[in-house]
C-alpha cells in the first residue's frame, strides 16, 4: 500500500471513530432521558403538529397563524410528523444534525491545514456536553449548530478564480445562510458585520488586495444575498400577507429582550450571588403581571406584532431608566454565555461528579480556544479564519442585550474547537 492509500485509510478510520463516538453518546443520552424528546418547552412540537395536520404555521392547538418562533425547525419536525412518531422525529433530526456537524468540523480542519489534528477538533464536537444533552430535546441547538458549521464550510470553499464556479459557491453560501437565519434570527448580525467590513474596506480603496475578491462585476456578497433572499422571501411574504407587516425575523424578539431586561430579573438574578437562577414561581408571577399590563395597555385582542412592539418598548424603557442595572445585566449575560457549568434545569438530573467533569472539560476547551484566538489574531493568515471570528462575535453581540444562558453558545462549539486545536503544537 502506497503512502497516499495509507493516509486515506487512517483518515477514514479517524472520521469513523469520531462519528461512532458522537452517535454512541447521543443514543446514550436519549436512552437515559427518553421522555425529554417530547417535552415541548419552546412550542416547536406544537407548531410542527399544526403543520403536519394541515393547519399551517399556527399557535399550538389552534389555527391562529403565528410568527413567534423561527420557521425552519418546526417545518422540519412537521415534515417528519406526517409519517413518524414525535420522539423518533426529534431524535432522528437531532442525531443526524449532530453527526453532520462532526463531519463538517473535520472538513473545516482540513481546509485550515490541520492534518490529523482535525480529528481532535471533530472529537471535541462529538463529546461536547451541551450538544449531546440537547440531542434529546425538541430545541434548535443541534440543527442550528449544524447550519452554523455548514455556513463556515461554505465560506471556506469560496475562493475560486473560475467565474461560474464562484457564482455557484456564492449563491450556495447565501442559501445556507438563509437556512441559518430561519433557524435562529440572531445570526443576521453576521450579515451586518460583513457589510460593515466590506464598506470599511471599500473606503480604504484596497478591495483589490483582498484574497477572496469577486471575479465578477458585482461584489461577492451581492450573490450571497441573492441566495439568502430566495430562501427567506417566502417567510417574509407570508408574514406580510398574514400580519400586514414584512416580518423578517420573528415576533419573539421583543419578549426575549424584555425577559433579560426588567426590574424583577435585575433584582432577583443580576444583583444576587453568581449562580442564582430565576425561580420558576417568580417567573410565572412576572409573566402573569406582564399579561395584565399588556391587556390594560393594548386590550384583550392585541396582535402578535403589537405585543412584540410593546415588549420591546418596555425593555428599552427599563434599559434607559436604570443604566447601572442594565450594565450589570450585560456583564451577567457575558458570564452566562461563557459559563463552564450550565445552570437551571439542565443540571436538575446531573450528579455533582458529572457537573465537575463538564466544568473541567469546558475550562480546558475555552482556555485553549482563547489561546488559539490570540495566536491566530497575530498570524499572517488570519484572513482565513475571519468567518469563525465573525460567527463568535455575532453571537456575543446579540447576547449583550437578549436573554442569555449557556446553551446559546452551542452553535459556536465547532469554531471554538478549531481555535482550541491551534493551541496544540503541530508535532504533538
Quick take:
This protein has 428 residues and is mostly helical. It has 18 helices and no strands. The radius of gyration is 22 Å and the shape is globular.
Note down, in words, how this protein is organized.
By secondary structure, the protein is mainly alpha-helical. The chain has one domain (3-250, 338-422). It is 66% helix and 0% strand. It contains 18 helices and no strands. The protein has helices spanning 3-32, 44-52, 72-81, 86-111, 118-127, 129-133, 141-156, 163-183, 188-203, 220-243, 253-259, 263-270, 280-298, 304-321, 323-337, 352-377, 386-398, 413-422. The longest helix has 30 residues, at 3-32. It is globular. Mean pLDDT is 91; it is low at 206-212.
Number of helices: 18
Poorly predicted residue ranges = 206-212
Domain count: the total is 1
What's the oligomerization state?
single chain
Helix and strand succession?
HHHHHHHHHHHHHHHHHH
Could you tell me the mean pLDDT? Answer: 91
Task: State the helicity in percent bands.
Answer: 55-70%
| Approximate shape | globular
Structural class: mainly alpha
Amino acid at each position: 500500500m502506497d503512502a497516499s492509500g495509507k493516509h486515506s485509510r487512517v483518515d477514514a478510520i479517524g472520521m469513523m471513530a469520531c462519528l461512532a463516538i458522537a452517535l454512541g453518546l447521543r443514543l446514550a443520552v436519549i436512552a437515559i432521558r427518553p421522555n425529554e424528546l417530547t417535552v415541548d418547552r419552546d412550542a416547536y412540537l406544537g407548531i410542527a403538529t399544526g403543520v403536519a395536520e394541515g393547519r399551517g404555521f399556527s399557535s399550538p392547538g389552534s389555527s391562529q397563524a403565528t410568527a413567534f418562533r423561527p420557521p425552519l425547525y418546526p417545518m422540519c419536525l412537521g415534515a417528519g410528523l406526517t409519517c413518524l412518531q414525535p420522539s423518533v422525529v426529534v431524535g432522528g433530526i437531532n442525531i443526524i444534525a449532530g453527526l453532520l456537524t462532526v463531519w463538517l468540523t473535520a472538513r473545516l480542519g482540513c481546509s485550515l491545514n490541520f492534518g490529523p489534528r482535525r480529528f481532535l477538533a471533530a472529537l471535541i464536537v462529538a463529546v461536547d456536553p451541551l450538544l449531546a444533552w440537547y440531542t434529546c430535546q425538541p430545541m434548535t441547538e443541534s440543527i442550528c449548530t449544524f447550519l452554523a458549521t455548514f455556513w463556515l464550510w461554505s465560506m471556506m470553499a469560496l475562493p475560486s478564480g473560475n467565474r461560474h464556479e464562484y457564482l455557484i459557491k456564492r449563491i450556495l453560501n447565501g442559501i445556507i445562510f438563509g437556512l441559518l437565519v430561519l433557524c435562529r434570527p440572531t445570526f443576521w448580525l453576521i450579515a451586518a458585520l460583513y457589510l460593515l467590513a466590506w464598506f470599511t474596506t471599500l473606503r480604504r480603496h484596497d478591495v483589490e488586495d483582498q484574497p477572496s475578491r469577486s471575479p465578477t462585476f458585482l461584489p461577492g456578497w451581492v450573490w450571497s444575498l441573492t441566495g439568502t433572499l430566495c430562501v427567506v422571501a417566502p417567510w417574509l411574504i407570508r408574514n406580510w400577507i398574514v400580519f400586514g407587516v414584512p416580518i423578517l425575523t420573528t415576533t419573539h424578539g421583543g419578549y426575549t429582550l424584555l425577559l433579560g431586561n426588567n426590574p424583577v430579573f435585575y433584582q432577583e438574578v443580576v444583583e444576587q450571588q453568581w449562580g442564582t437562577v430565576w425561580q420558576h414561581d417568580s417567573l410565572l408571577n412576572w409573566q402573569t403581571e406582564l399579561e395584565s399590563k399588556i391587556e390594560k395597555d393594548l386590550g384583550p385582542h392585541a396582535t402578535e406584532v403589537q405585543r412584540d412592539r410593546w415588549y420591546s418598548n418596555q425593555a428599552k424603557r427599563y434599559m434607559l431608566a436604570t443604566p447601572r442595572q442594565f450594565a450589570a445585566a450585560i456583564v451577567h449575560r457575558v458570564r452566562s454565555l461563557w459559563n463552564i457549568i450550565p445552570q437551571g434545569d439542565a443540571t436538575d438530573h446531573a450528579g455533582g461528579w458529572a457537573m465537575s467533569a463538564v466544568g473541567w472539560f469546558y475550562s480546558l476547551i475555552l482556555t485553549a480556544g482563547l489561546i488559539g484566538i490570540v495566536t491566530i489574531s497575530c498570524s499572517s493568515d488570519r484572513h482565513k479564519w475571519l468567518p469563525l471570528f465573525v460567527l463568535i462575535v455575532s453571537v456575543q453581540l446579540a447576547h449583550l442585550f437578549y436573554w442569555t444562558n449557556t446553551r446559546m453558545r452551542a452553535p459556536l462549539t465547532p469554531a471554538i474547537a478549531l481555535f482550541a486545536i491551534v493551541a496544540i503544537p503541530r508535532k504533538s
